[in-house]
């Protein structure tokens, strides 16, 4: 009997401890994959970085180019102007793109130390898309493949 009371007391104490931290917020939106048709029909060529989110398959969800970043939101391509006052990333891409509706950040997680294979540079990166007021809508870590396109 005493053992049952002690176990019950321990359970009550355990339930009084600090609650578990809340899970991270879910992404409010999910960018779609930019496919070959999107690239050719919209003439998305030039040097820059393609970003592929971890666990998201092999398709790029972002093309960070010299003049703009391109995402697919709700099945439509969205272009966000480059913030050329931001830090350059690789191959003519930038770490920040912004317009009144969206702010996009693409940053190297490994401080720019990546793998180089010919003209292709691979970086571990993080992408964050926020609304114009700065509220995060989507964030993901993954790989940025920077090359002439």
Secondary structure topology:
Layout: H1 2-15, H2 36-41, E1 48-53, E2 62-65, E3 68-73, E4 76-81, E5 96-98, E6 102-108, E7 115-117, E8 120-131, E9 136-147
Antiparallel strand pairs: 1-2, 1-9, 2-3, 3-4, 5-6, 6-8, 7-8, 8-9
How would you describe what is shown here?
This protein has helices at residues 2-15, 36-41; strands at 48-53, 62-65, 68-73, 76-81, 96-98, 102-108, 115-117, 120-131, 136-147. It is mainly β. Strands 1, 2, 3, 4, 5, 6, 7, 8 and 9 form a nine-stranded antiparallel sheet that branches.
Strand content: 35-45%
Which series of helices and strands comes N to C? HHEEEEEEEEE
**Radius of gyration based on Cα positions:** 21 Å
Tell me how many strands there are.
Answer: 9
Which class best fits the helix and strand makeup?
mainly beta
Tell me roughly what share of residues is in helical segments: 10-25%
Regions with pLDDT < 50 over 5+ consecutive residues? 9-14
Shape: globular
Largest sheet: 9 strands, antiparallel
Mean pLDDT: 86
Number of helices: 2
Distance between the termini: 74 Å
Provide keyphrases for this structure.
nine-stranded antiparallel sheet, globular, 9 strands, mainly beta, 149 residues, single chain, 2 helices
In brief, what are we looking at here?
By secondary structure, the protein is mainly beta. Helix content is 13%, strand content 40%.
């Amino acid at each position: 009997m005493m053992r049952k009371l002690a176990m019950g007391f321990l359970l009550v104490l355990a339930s009084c401890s600090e609650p578990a931290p809340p899970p991270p917020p879910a992404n409010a939106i999910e960018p779609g994959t930019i496919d070959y048709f999107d690239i050719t029909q919209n003439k998305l060529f030039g040097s820059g970085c393609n970003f592929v989110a971890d666990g998201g398959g092999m398709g790029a969800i972002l093309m960070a180019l010299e003049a703009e970043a391109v995402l697919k939101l709700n099945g439509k391509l969205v272009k966000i102007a480059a913030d050329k006052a931001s830090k350059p990333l690789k191959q003519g891409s930038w770490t920040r793109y912004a317009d009144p509706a969206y702010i996009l950040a693409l940053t190297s997680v490994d401080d720019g130390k990546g793998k180089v294979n010919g003209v292709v540079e691979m970086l571990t990166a993080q992408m964050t898309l926020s609304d114009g007021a700065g509220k995060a809508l989507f964030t993901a870590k993954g790989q940025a493949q920077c090359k002439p396109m």
